[in-house]
Hints:
Elements: H1 3-26, H2 32-36, E1 44-48, E2 56-61, E3 63-65, H3 72-88, E4 96-100, H4 123-144, H5 150-169, E5 172-175, E6 178-183, H6 190-193, E7 196-202, E8 218-220, H7 224-233, H8 240-243, E9 249-253, E10 258-263, H9 270-277, E11 283-287, H10 295-302, E12 307-311, E13 314-317, E14 320-323, E15 327-330, E16 345-350
Parallel strand pairs: 1-16, 2-4, 3-13, 4-5, 10-11, 11-12
Antiparallel strand pairs: 2-16, 6-7, 7-8, 9-10, 12-15, 13-14
Amino acid sequence: MTPFWKNAITSLILIPIFFGIAYIFSGKPISSEQYNSFPNKEYQILASGYDRNAGNILVIQPEWKLEDFSSEERFLKSVESPLKQAKQKGLLKKNTLVIYPAHTGSFLYFLNSRQEIFKQSSLEEAFRLIQWENLFKSTIGLNSGKKSDPYKEAGTTYLRIFSNLSRTYGVYILPGSILLPIANSESDNAENALQTTWKEAAYIFDPSKSITLKDTIFVRTPSEAWKKKLEKLKSTESSAANETAERPLAVFQFPFARFGIFYLEDFKNPEFQEKVKKTFVSRVIAIGEDSSEAELKEWAVKSNIESTVRMIPSGSFLDQNYGGGSYIKTRFGASTPGVNSREPLILNLFL
């Protein structure tokens, strides 16, 4: 091969690499001026039950926007601000469990992304651009000898932030859930063990303990709508073989109370409702995305559940909109608030 053709082939290889480098370094993140121009609403504090010094549950429903996930500092501020407000009101004690909505960690893949990504018409398109950006960064990292895993970084950021908040405020935290590509570590086949599958994972943070990404209270397969979005972000192996039997339920014993914790979408199944009954828990926490769900409240009354918590996200993430609808309820009391609300809420349920 002549030197001319060697140089031509080399150029064809290098052009996409240089294009990727130029794309990454020419992009600008959302500035402080842009972020501060978005309106921020005050949290409303509502309470239910009586303080018998037996502990309390604090449900935090932010009205999020995607830009809250544009940097670690902004995300931390969005989750810590209601904690500070609750502390000022004397609602944070050693027997407090703080709950955030489902997918609190799932949008951390947008950290430090360029402005253009936040202007896409859909999450699918935004995730697709993030995938290309991650690909270019990985290529540059391999060439420079610095390896990075942006998918793992989102998970470690999630763990670090909520571990620090749990220790700082001395409370237990259930920060909703996070979508992660999890390795098939239980497989006997070495090749399959290296493959990953998207899972929605939930964690509980204890102020006296440290946890890792392996310390989930349960995981489940994402919804079909989420699968389509996630495949744009990172292609993984299909988990169809495990989906039919997967209805996670955690029975978690805190020092002050025992809870049954599950996904609201799984609760629609009558067999799963019976499964919850057989745990003999008197307090339940359901995290989900469906504001129109109407079974949980009636079921809790018939099942003599002492405390019921429903946790639904609120906010707009491009074409993904959440309508809120979180509530707390004692056995004989009405739900608080009485109607679904998208507003930023701090709901305090005394046990």
